[in-house]
Amino acid sequence: MAKTKEIYPRKICIQGTWYTIEERSATKDPELQQGCGGYFDPYNRRCVVKDFSKDKDWDPDEARLMQSRIIRHEIIHAFLYESGLDECSWAQNEEIVDFFALNLPKLFVCCYVAEVLEWHRPGKPDEQTVGTGV
Ligand SMILES: [Zn+2]
């Protein structure tokens, strides 16, 4: 599995707004020193994940998997924010955000197999809809 240093920082487009995914050391980021693995920062338009590779208790592949789950969680917060739904009580429920973060790959596969994703239509995929912006 690829090292996280080769992956981050990365730019992603969320609902037409560019965000950065950043991997940071808990020793250098006070937000990460409070026991969280990541956070969504709407003011600086970034999703931050703790660099678990610095933690000797984590196997490198497990650390990468955990970081991926945390980033999906923060991306969902960003989508809710950019959609104007972040103030809704259900959108602030961490269990709901986690449900989508954990099940997003399964949802994607189901939609892909069912051929109901936006890029299944003729022509080029909509950059904003796909979310990569690349
Ligand atoms: Zn959260």
User: How would you characterize the largest beta sheet?
Assistant: 4 strands, mixed
Determine the N-to-C terminus distance.
Answer: 23 Å
**Helix-strand topology string:** EEEEHHH
Query: Strand sequence of the main sheet, in spatial order?
Result: 1-2-4-3
**Rounded radius of gyration (Å):** 16 Å
**C-alpha geometry:** globular
The structural class is alpha+beta
Number of strands: 4
Bound molecules: zinc ion
Strand coverage percent: 15-25%
Are there runs of 5+ residues with pLDDT below 50, and where?
A: none
- How many domains is the backbone divided into? 1
List keywords for this structure.
single chain, 134 residues, alpha+beta, four-stranded mixed β-sheet, 3 helices, 35% helix, globular, binds zinc ion
Structure description:
The protein is α+β, with helices and mostly antiparallel strands and 134 residues long. The chain has one domain. Helices cover 35% and strands 16% of the residues. The chain is built from three helices and four strands. The protein has a four-stranded mixed sheet with strand order 1-2-4-3, with helices on one face. A hairpin with a 4-residue loop joins strand 3 (38-41) and strand 4. Helix 1 (60-82) crosses helix 2. The longest helix is centred in the middle third of the chain and has 23 residues, at 60-82. The chain is globular, with a radius of gyration of 16 Å. The chain starts with 9 loop residues before the first strand and ends with a helix. The structure holds zinc ion. Zinc ion binds next to helix 1 and helix 2.
